[in-house]
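--- STAGE predict ---
source: upstream dedup step, 1 unique chain passed
mode: sequence only
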Amino acid sequence: MPADTARLVCAVLLLYLPASVLALSSDRDQPIYIEADSAVLMEKEGLSTYTGNVAIRQGTLELHGDHMTVYNSDSNIDRIILTGSPATIVQRLEGSDKNLHAEAGQMEYHAANERIILTGAARIWQADGKEFRSEKIIYNIRTNTVNAGDSTSGERVHITLQPKQKPDDNGEPGSE
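--- STAGE serialize ---
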C-alpha cells in the first residue's frame, strides 16, 4: 500500500473506529462462561483447548468459533487463539445501545501487549453501517489504535462510512 494511502487509512480509522470500539468497562468484572463440545485442560503445561461449537460469554462480550486454545502461565492468560468459519465477536459499546461485531478466520488475543489480531477475511462493523475489512486487522486495546492490511499479500483495506443523518423538522435524526 502506498505511504499516502496508508496515512489516509490510519487517519480515517483514528477518526471513526477507535472512539467507537470502547467496550463496556463493566464486562471485565463479570464471570467468564465457556461452552464447547469437548475440552482438554493441561494445567501443568498451562494449556487448554476447546473444540466444537465453542462459545464464550463475559458480560456483553460473546465469542463463537470452532476451536479455541488458551495459553496460561502463573494462572494468567498469555494468549488465546480462536478459529472458525468464521470466528466471531459481538460486544456492546460503552455508552451505547449498539453492538460492535467482528469476524475472521482466526482471532488471536495477546494479553501482555493487549492486542487482538484478526486474520483471514477480517471484518469489523457496527449497526450504523460503518465497516472495515482487510485480510489482517490488528487492534491495540491499550493505545486504541487499528492497523490493517499487509503489503505482502496485495490485499486492499476496505472502509465504509455512512453519511450523518440530517435532522428532521423537530431536530431529531431523520430516517432518510
